[in-house]
Design brief:
single chain; SIR2/SIRT2 'Small Domain'; 9 strands; 17% strand; binds nicotinamide-adenine-dinucleotide
Length: 238
């Protein structure tokens, strides 16, 4: 019988996928969206994080995203981000699939990150079809030279996911031998379904979260605790 709370050593696998959510950045100081202290306790997404809000009041939506940029800039990648990057360096077939938009995996040293929900650090002009990286704060000017608004290149509520991005994530997960899900409530679809792909192909699946999620019962291993401590167990110092 599998001991579900035991952490297997990740060095025993070849093609690992880390599937991360807001919880992996919690110990860096970035609030999660749901749960106690979550962002949606303080804000209404209909005012700040959907296309209709942007059409109605782009300045307000940009102010809110500038606050999220400031919040992320004030935080540092934590041990979990750094260890995930170390795994990727040591085992180059490792992929990081994140729902996060904060850029902390990259700042922690990860070289390849599939960002399912876009990035706070990219903006796009839908009229001109341009996407560009931008790390300034506050973001200025808010209008493209064509006169239209730059839009944060993030997947807002009611937006579809980018087809190519989800295809890359799906392919990585379909080919993995181990999926480690860290800090996701498994409530945001379709991202929440991706770990099921790993289960279908017979990969070893590990959930890291201080709390149960709707998918906990399906994982081979459930590590109940914060991301940093659990990553240290999964990747002990050699
Ligand atoms: P969520 O807010 O719905 O859930 C966060 C999960 O993290 C919860 O299950 C919680 O129990 C867990 N958690 C809390 N502290 C933890 C810790 N120290 N270690 C490990 N886990 C911990 O987040 P979600 O599932 O990612 O979905 C919300 C959506 O909003 C996603 O698109 C998400 O990426 C986005 N979001 C991004 C950021 C960010 O970029 N940092 C922050 C908030 C939300």
């Amino acid at each position: 019988m599998i001991e579900r709370s035991r952490a297997p050593d990740l060095r025993g696998f070849e093609r690992i996928v880390f599937f991360t959510g807001a919880g992996v950045s919690r110990e860096s100081g970035i609030p999660t969206y749901r749960g106690r202290g979550g962002i949606w306790e303080r804000f209404d997404y209909r005012e700040v994080a959907c296309q209709r809000a942007f059409a109605r009041d782009p300045e307000k939506v940009w102010d809110w995203h500038d606050e999220r940029r400031a919040e992320a800039l004030a935080c540092e990648p934590n041990l979990a981000h750094r260890l995930i990057a170390e795994v990727q360096r040591e085992m180059p077939a490792t992929e990081v699939v994140t729902q996060n938009i904060d850029g902390l995996h990259q700042r922690g040293g990860a070289e390849r990150v599939i960002e399912l929900h876009g990035s706070l650090w990219r903006v796009r002009c839908d009229r001109e079809g341009i996407v560009k990286e931008d790390f300034s704060h506050p973001f200025q000017p808010r209008r493209c030279k064509c006169g239209d608004w730059w839009r944060p290149d993030v997947v807002w509520f009611e937006d579809p996911l980018d087809h190519e991005t989800i295809r890359r994530a799906w392919t990585a997960i379909e080919n993995c031998d181990c999926l480690v899900s860290i800090g996701t409530s498994a409530n945001v679809y379709p991202a929440a379904e991706l770990p099921l792909v790993a289960m279908r192909v017979g990969a070893v699946t590990i959930e890291v979260n201080p709390e149960d999620t709707p998918l906990s019962g399906l994982y081979a291993h459930c590590l109940r605790g914060p991301a940093t401590e659990m990553m240290r167990r999964l990747w002990p110092e050699s």
